[in-house]
């Protein structure tokens, strides 16, 4: 008897993992068989026939988007075993807790976003639910018992609602399990009720609310928190916090607020931060970040900072990326960046920089990318330094340069990308480009297209250097007092004619000595490169 029983079990399991046949699922549904169960996606369908077709099946994922029947159909539908359930855009305003309890024996992920709930539905007992997503509804009320029977809930997303008062009491049953809480895009003004000291939260998202102050000391007492998002609020000041209140915080996002003042002691309370986001505020003075010894990334874009000071980053030995674009910087000191730092990327584009002290970037031996576009007059000799031996990309777009000289990039042995568009360039001295440069963008300039620039175009052709964006090949040349715009390929054609003339002369000379033969070979090589570059384009 034992063999037939085992055989029946295998047959039953096989059937449970098979997609319904004979058109039992609505036509708008798709079904895939996976090792974890069925993966079913339906749209614009009635719920009742879906549940009936999946009765006695093992379902890994069931996603229903836009159901066409009412809430009663799901309450009367048969029980199904599903691990991950999504029911969206079904205009549900309420739902019986018995519905979820009947599905709860296997339910780990529940997504009820984009319906029309005004009050939180009663979920009943869902003993193994890990993740609940109920955002994009019209939620404004939560009772103290809403989450009382969700003992293992780790992720809760109730964003894009109308919550005005933080549901601290309602969340208390989740204090031991909840790791991620997303209440962004609501209507919170006051954080005095956001007191979560006993919680094990790793991520708290309060972005896109109406919070104006974070002065409440109790707010910062989250000892397990790794990431805090307060961006897109109305915060104006960051005041002193008690030391070590968030001892595990790694990411602090305060972008897009109204911050104009940061207390010198503020960062003592969050000194474990590795990523600090402060862009799009009204900060005038570079904040004191000397206590952030683990800081790796600093974003101060779009503020009103006019100076980086001296030694401002001495307390940040792990700092790798600094971005301070779109501020009011005018001067870069040679004492701004500490010797022996690990900075790899520095972006100070869109400022008003007119003075860079010699050696200002020479203390950045690990720098890979430097952005200086859209400033004022930049002296290249003060930007580049032989110590910058790892620099790959240099952006000088939209500054005033006029000329590139032979030693401007001396020592930059790995420089691959140079952007000098819109810089007023007229001349490029012979030998300026290094062997490693594969991209030299020069559009938007008025070049002196005469014999002084001939070497440049030969070099470009021979080394297949990209000089223009793919969709722009026009070059503007100075011809006396006139500006003439021609296509780059036409310029190469004119150049080729001169190369062929030089070749003819060289052939004549080659009859006289061995040096002439070498000259012929050199001209032939350039001519072949030109043919590949211009004549044989796909």
Automatic annotation (TrEMBL):
InterPro entries: Leu-rich_rpt, Leu-rich_rpt_typical-subtyp, LRR_dom_sf. It comes from the Eukaryota. The keyword Transport does not apply. Keywords: Leucine-rich repeat, Repeat, Signal. The keyword Phosphoprotein does not apply. Residues 1-16 form the signal peptide. This is LRRCT domain-containing protein. It comes from Panagrellus redivivus.
């Amino acid at each position: 008897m034992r063999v037939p029983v085992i055989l029946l079990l295998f047959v039953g399991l096989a059937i449970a993992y098979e997609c319904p046949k004979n058109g039992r699922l609505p036509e708008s549904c798709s079904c895939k068989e996976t090792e974890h169960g069925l993966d079913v996606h339906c749209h614009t369908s009635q719920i009742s026939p879906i549940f009936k077709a999946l009765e006695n099946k093992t379902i890994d994922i069931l996603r229903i988007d836009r159901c066409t029947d009412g809430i009663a159909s799901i309450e009367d539908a048969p029980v199904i075993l599903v691990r991950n359930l999504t029911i969206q855009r079904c205009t549900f305003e309420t739902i019986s807790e018995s519905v979820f309890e009947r599905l709860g024996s296997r339910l780990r992920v529940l997504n009820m976003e984009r319906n029309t709930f005004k009050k939180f539905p009663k979920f009943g007992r869902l003993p193994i639910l890990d993740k609940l997503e109920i955002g994009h509804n019209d939620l404004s009320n939560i009772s103290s018992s809403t989450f009382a029977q969700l003992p293992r809930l780790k992720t809760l997303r109730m964003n894009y609602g109308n919550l005005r008062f933080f549901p601290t009491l309602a969340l208390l049953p989740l204090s031991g399990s909840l790791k991620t809480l997303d209440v962004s895009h609501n209507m919170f003004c006051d954080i005095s009720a956001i007191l979560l000291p006993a919680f094990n939260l790793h991520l708290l998202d309060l972005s896109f609310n109406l919070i104006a102050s974070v002065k409440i000391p109790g707010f910062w007492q989250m000892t397990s928190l790794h990431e805090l998002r307060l961006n897109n609020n109305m915060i104006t000041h960051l005041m002193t916090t008690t030391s070590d209140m968030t001892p595990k915080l790694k990411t602090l996002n305060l972008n897009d607020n109204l911050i104009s003042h940061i207390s010198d002691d503020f960062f003592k309370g969050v000194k474990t931060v590795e990523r600090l986001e402060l862009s799009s505020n009204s900060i005038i003075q570079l904040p004191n970040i000397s206590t952030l010894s683990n800081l790796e990334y600093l974003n101060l874009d779009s503020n009103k900072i006019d100076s980086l000071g001296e030694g401002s980053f001495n307390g940040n030995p792990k700092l790798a990326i600094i971005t301070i674009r779109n501020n009011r910087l005018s001067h870069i000191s040679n004492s701004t960046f500490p010797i022996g730092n690990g900075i790899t990327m520095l972006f100070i584009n869109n400022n008003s920089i007119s003075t860079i002290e010699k050696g200002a970037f020479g203390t950045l031996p690990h720098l890979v990318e430097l952005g200086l576009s859209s400033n004022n007059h930049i002296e290249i000799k003060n930007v580049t330094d032989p110590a910058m031996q790892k620099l790959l990309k240099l952006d000088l777009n939209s500054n005033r340069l006029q000329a590139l000289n032979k030693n401007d990039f001396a020592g930059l042995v790995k420089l691959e990308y140079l952007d000098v568009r819109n810089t007023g360039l007229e001349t490029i001295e012979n030998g300026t480009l290094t062997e490693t440069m594969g991209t030299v963008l020069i559009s938007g300039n008025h070049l002196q297209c005469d014999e002084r620039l001939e070497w440049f175009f030969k070099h470009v052709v021979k080394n297949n250097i990209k000089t223009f964006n793919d969709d722009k090949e026009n070059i503007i040349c100075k011809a006396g007092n006139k500006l003439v715009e021609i296509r780059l390929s036409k310029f190469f054609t004119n150049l080729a004619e001169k190369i062929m003339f030089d070749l003819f002369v060289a052939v004549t000379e080659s009859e006289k000595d061995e040096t002439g033969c070498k000259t012929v070979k050199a001209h032939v090589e350039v001519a072949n490169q030109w043919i590949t570059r211009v004549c044989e384009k796909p």
